[in-house]
């Protein structure tokens, strides 16, 4: 197995888990906050997608799907490329109201399409390329951070889904 297949497989797993976790949720369930200082399923799904969109678009040297494909309007938000949820306060999170689960998943799928395109052409040399990022100064480190972020957040989404629906929602 090539490393590109491994990375694409990780993001595919995020997509599959996200699809199952969002399936059939109502607006109230998507926007449910377990307490005022927690994130909702909808906010987490939006945030993990925004982080992936921002990072991959940056690595590709392209405009984010958020802006280029007008996803911001489907979320009733401004086309701010820095609006990714990073640094959001509890008030910002609680005021976030999501579109339906299909729109959340469709946005992830649009971003994942770009992610697959980028990763499928990724070379070993590109992994070592230095980038303008203080915390993750090389492409490989940046991709590791993105996958870590996505896996953590999709796990949080799955946990919240379990809180709402109980055991067995994920299947065998």
Write a structural description.
With 172 residues, the protein is an all-alpha fold. Helix content is 64%, strand content 0%. It has a single domain (3-78, 92-165), classed as dinb family like domain (Four Helix Bundle (Hemerythrin (Met), subunit A)). The protein has nine helices and no strands. Helix 3 packs parallel to helix 7. The protein is globular and about 45 Å long. The model has no long low-confidence stretch (mean pLDDT 95).
The largest β sheet comes out as: none
Instruction: Give the full name of the CATH homologous superfamily.
Output: dinb family like domain
What gyration radius follows from the Cα positions, in whole Å?
Answer: 16 Å
The proportion of residues forming helix, as a percent range, comes to 55-70%
How many domains comprise the coordinates? 1
**Terminal residue distance:** 26 Å
Estimate the strand proportion. Answer: under 5%
Q: Tell me, briefly, the overall form.
A: globular
Quickly list its features.
mainly alpha, Four Helix Bundle (Hemerythrin (Met), subunit A)
Task: Give the structure's gist in a few sentences.
Helices cover 64% and strands 0% of the residues. It has 9 helices and no strands. The longest helix has 27 residues, at 139-165.
Compile the SSE list and pairings.
Elements lengths: L2 H20 L4 H5 L9 H20 L4 H4 L2 H4 L15 H6 L5 H20 L3 H4 L11 H27 L7
Helix pairs in contact: 1-7, 1-9, 3-7, 3-9
């Amino acid at each position: 197995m090539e490393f590109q297949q491994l990375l694409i497989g990780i993001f595919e797993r995020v997509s599959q888990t996200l699809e199952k976790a969002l399936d059939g949720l109502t607006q109230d369930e998507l926007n449910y906050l377990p307490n005022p200082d927690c994130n909702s399923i909808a906010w987490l799904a939006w945030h993990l997608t925004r982080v992936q969109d921002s990072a991959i678009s940056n690595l590709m040297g392209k405009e984010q799907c958020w802006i280029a494909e007008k996803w911001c309007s489907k979320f009733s938000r401004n086309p701010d490329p820095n609006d990714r949820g990073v640094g959001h306060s509890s008030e910002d999170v609680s005021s976030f109201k999501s579109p339906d689960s299909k729109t959340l998943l469709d946005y992830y799928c649009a971003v994942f399409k770009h992610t697959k395109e980028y990763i499928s052409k990724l070379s070993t040399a590109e992994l070592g390329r230095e980038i303008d990022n203080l915390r993750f100064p090389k492409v490989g480190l940046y991709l590791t951070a993105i996958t870590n972020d996505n896996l953590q957040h999709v796990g949080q989404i799955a946990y919240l889904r379990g809180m709402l629906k109980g055991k067995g929602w994920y299947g065998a």
